[in-house]
DNA sequence: ATGGATATTGTATTTGCTATGATATGTATC
DNA sequence: GATACATATCATAGCAAATACAATATCCAT
């Protein structure tokens, strides 16, 4: 968390739950943290986040964090919940780490949590290493700093609701060219249940904003699947 | 905003959008505010809200505000969005009022907004007068303090989404005994469009958690409508 | 040419939503 | 008491969307 020391408001932070999809599972972007607890060095992980600066609004702070981390601009960032329980900073481990990082006394911090759905393939080759960041499969996430496990749980609940309201966000998770299988597995992972292949195919055929391309998979040892793409303009016309 | 001066965190507040339904329109609970601006006394309105105390978490603070105001306990309070724009406190009128009320210097305040759907009939005869509170029809809400108009707008967007996900919240707005007409008008007001009477009737007949009672309207100058009631137990069984 | 693997397609059934017509029951009026 | 009027309640048909279920097509490797 290096920056040129703008004045920080040490009561309010933002945390970003950045979610990606690798074709099989959902992954969340986490940052490695090295700290010290009663003389022992420990390693664990946390969500990307930061105290907000005095001259910065919430959305701006979230954008900044995400940008510093992935280099992305213009990513769809959704505020989904504030976390302000008093025992967020219950663990002395977390408090000591934070006070060293921020060089200031901290008490209870309210954090505003943001959710972002991104394409792993684009993010993968950016500054991730510089930031000690890693795409961790959701079911392999261990104990995180602060209440970040809780924040991720709430983020997942939020996604499931949000998808129904705005299905286009699914395509933020997929590559620009994707197969019907990828899209189906994404649905299955999100809803936690199997979907009939044939009915699903019929369904995406009726979505006029999912465009079949003339391109097919290469070098697979079975019948090659067609690629599809998502057309945002058509989507906006038909939905709004 | 009288209280016995627990230590307040003057960076974070909660505001409650308390919504009721009078049978025709939605109403929101607002508090009268009297302030002074360049020598002139002004009257306007604001959402019920408060800075949070140091030993209080967000949900707790929202509960406290709502309880002080209406006497309610165990009301369903939903956090729906945080507002942290820097120009929330752009208007000097608001800043001066707040600094007098809180007896402390304030800068930017991030507020966590909560939504609550309640029965007007229960709330009506409580402490509303003591708190200078009033049920204002949504379409008659004037310019409010801070960004409270924006907060109400966002609250309404949130309700529309939330209803689809959890229709049971509609019954929080209705009296325990209600007619099919009341329920239908509530839908119409929320979605802003007319619903066919006959199809709507069929629809609520298929909801096994809407129970027809043996009681009918009294003293109306037309065929008396049947009363219905909402059964939460049955609802929870069928939905979850 | 054959087998293994995955992709793609068709048909019948059920269920839900929409549109519209007809009947029932209360009060007020003549 | 007969009639008009207003609202509540019940009924039916058509269309569209969701579900259940099985066969065929295409690519690669041998």
Structural notes for this entry:
The structure is a homodimer of 240-residue chains. Chain A has 240 residues and is of the alpha+beta class. Chain A has helices at 58-70, 92-102, 120-124, 148-165, 180-191, 197-206, 232-239; strands at residues 8-21, 26-37, 40-46, 49-53, 77-83, 110-117, 133-137, 178-179, 210-216, 226-230. In chain A, the strands form two sheets. In chain A, strands 1, 2, 3, 4, 5, 6 and 7 form a seven-stranded mixed beta sheet that branches. In chain A, a hairpin with a 4-residue loop joins strand 1 (8-21) and strand 2 (26-37). The A-B interface holds A 9, 11-12, 52, 54-58, 79, 81-86, 107-108, 110, 112, 161, 164-165 and B 9, 11-12, 52, 54-58, 79, 81-86, 107-108, 110, 112, 161, 164-165. Chain A binds a DNA duplex (30 and 30 nucleotides) through residues 179-181, 196-199, 201-203, 206, 217, 219-226.
What attributes characterize this protein structure?
homodimer; 240 residues; alpha+beta; 7-stranded mixed sheet; 3-stranded antiparallel sheet; 32% helix; elongated; DNA-binding
Summarize the structure.
The structure is a homodimer of 240-residue chains. With 240 residues, chain A is α+β, with helices and mostly antiparallel strands.
Query: Using CB atoms under 8 Å apart, which protein chain pair has the greatest interface?
Result: A-B, 23 and 23 residues
Spans where pLDDT lies below 50 across 5 or more residues of chain A: none
Shape field of chain A = elongated
The ordered string of helix (H) and strand (E) elements of chain A is EEEEHEHEHEHEHHEEH
Count of alpha/pi helices of chain A:
7
Distance between the termini of chain A: 40 Å
